[in-house]
Design a protein that fits this description.
Low-confidence stretches: none
Radius of gyration: 22 Å
Structural class: alpha/beta
Strand content: 15-25%
Number of strands: 16
Distance between the termini: 58 Å
Largest sheet: 7 strands, mixed
Bound molecules: pyridoxal-5'-phosphate
Mean pLDDT: 97
Order of helices and strands: HEEEHHHEHEHEHEHEEEHHHEEEHEEEH
Helix content: 25-40%
Strand order of the largest sheet: 4-10-9-8-7-5-6
Length: 450
């Protein structure tokens, strides 16, 4: 069978495909056919507004001919080269990335996606420092391969334990809305709040032994675990702790990079230069699969005379590299980072307005086009609309309502994430927010204290 009518996509896929992150009997995939700009369509011609950039990755929007044509050109010229070979897109992309990444990050290892970018960053850090422990945060997701799962702090790692990479220690995030340390004094100043979380980290460094810690790995702005935006001084403080104890700082920019926060990389918001930085998703806007590890020159140089043991058949795949180059050019030509920076306050105002109108909204946070709504049953106790790591009838009903009304959005536990393509206009943003506004009547009904 080499072709299929649209009407049979869903039934045939359900018969023969195995679905990730899913109980197989419960999947309800959207049979998608095509996509353009901030929208995509299913086999029935229904249009969806994409408020999640598919998997938080189509940063430049769908169907951009400039990237598609660059891919076609590359396929015609050289669709594949062995990983040990030098190719034109490989040379160009390395140079381009060195121009847009922070500080003196100037060597780039190309990977297939985000998880293996993190795996390689860990290997590089361990090899460079000769130390083995990695500190990462509880509210984090770093990928689904065994090493990246071990780095992940959230419950997705638990079903696979204990058979994951050893040597990872988790610590707490500076999550102001649900701060562990500040239940009784939530009004604490930002300076002291930041200090408490840096002290917590330093204490863990001391307990674990700085001489055994290779790296601290963190999402510059936490993604699926809650769009946790670090307070002023936190990133700088983590950098200082790393310098004090000769620990490498690894920034995971897989979701937060490539314009998402209104800067090329989220860490640029705090002018901090990590030693290693991982990226994927927005690197190609998902027109082709690609990840990368950016590193400082001294880390690359540590492997001048010793062999770096690692690599995959598809490392530095020319088609993906060509997509990344074209994607960066589109971002530059269309001033997409600047546009996102300008849209940031607009999204923030829309979310704040929603928060004022709906009692089930406990908190909203956003930076650039990276936003979240936290739904609660009671604003005072902050009881979330779902139990920890669970679901609830209200959230399930709300998700259904959003989708029925043509809004594709990611909902994690008791939160809704707003992560649209960065080309979105104010009108399109308002279109999605209006659908959310309507659906919030479902969760509003479950607020216990009015
Ligand atoms: C912050 C972060 N790191 C790593 C990953 C893993 O990336 P991939 O799915 O490309 O392996 C993700 C994916 O969602 C992510 O959000």
């Amino acid at each position: 069978m080499f072709d299929l009518p649209d009407s049979e996509i869903l039934s045939t896929a359900l018969e023969h495909n195995f679905w990730t992150w899913s109980a197989q009997a419960k999947v309800t995939p959207i049979p998608v056919t095509h996509a353009k700009g901030v929208y995509f369509w299913d086999v029935n011609g229904k249009r969806y507004l994409d408020f999640n950039s598919m998997t938080m990755c189509v940063n430049i929007g769908h169907g951009d001919e400039r990237v598609i044509n660059a891919i076609i050109e590359q396929v015609k010229t050289l669709p594949y080269a062995a990983p040990e070979m030098a190719t034109k897109p490989r040379a160009i992309l390395g140079k381009l990335l060195s121009e847009i990444t922070p500080g003196n990050l100037n060597h780039f290892m190309f990977t297939l996606g985000g998880a293996d970018a993190n795996e390689n960053a860990i290997k590089l850090a361990r090899g460079y420092t000769g130390k083995h422990k990695i500190l990462a945060r509880y509210r984090s997701y770093h990928g689904a391969s065994a090493g990246a799962m071990a780095l992940t702090g959230d419950p997705r790692r638990i079903p696979w334990e204990p058979n994951l990479m050893p040597g990872v220690v988790h610590f707490l995030d500076p999550y102001r809305y649900r701060s562990t340390f500040h239940r009784t004094n939530p009004e604490i100043s930002e300076v002291d709040f930041t200090l408490d979380y840096l002290n917590h980290l330093e204490e863990i460094i001391q307990y674990e032994g700085p001489e055994s810690i290779a790296a601290i790995l963190l999402e510059s702005v936490t993604g699926t675990n809650g769009i946790i935006i670090p307070p002023e001084g936190y990133m700088q403080g983590v950098r200082e702790l790393c310098d004090k104890y000769q620990i490498l700082l690894i920034a995971d920019e897989v979701m937060s990079g490539f314009g998402r926060t209104g800067k090329w990389f989220a860490i640029d918001n705090w002018n901090v230069v990590p030693d290693l930085m991982t990226m994927a998703k927005g690197l190609t806007s998902a027109y082709a699969p690609l990840g990368a590890v950016a590193m400082k020159p001294e880390i690359a140089a540590a492997y001048n005379d010793i062999v770096y043991q690692g690599g995959l058949t598809y490392t530095a795949h020319p088609i993906s590299l060509a997509a990344a180059i074209a994607n960066i050019k589109v971002m530059q030509d269309d001033h997409i980072v600047e546009h996102t920076h300008e849209m940031g306050p607009i999204l923030h105002r829309m979310l704040t307005d929603l928060g004022e109108q709906h009692l089930s909204i406990g908190d909203v946070r956003s930076i650039g086009l990276f936003g979240i709504i936290e739904l609660v049953r009671d604003r005072k106790t902050k009881e979330p609309m779902t139990p920890w790591n669970g679901s609830s009838p209200e959230m399930t009903a709300m998700r259904k309502e959003l989708l029925e009304n043509g809004l594709f959005i990611y909902s994690h536990w008791h939160t809704l994430l707003i992560i649209p393509p960065l080309i979105i206009t104010e009108e399109q943003l308002a279109e999605g927010i209006a659908i959310i506004d309507k659906a919030l009547t479902i969760t509003d009904k479950s607020v216990t204290v009015k």
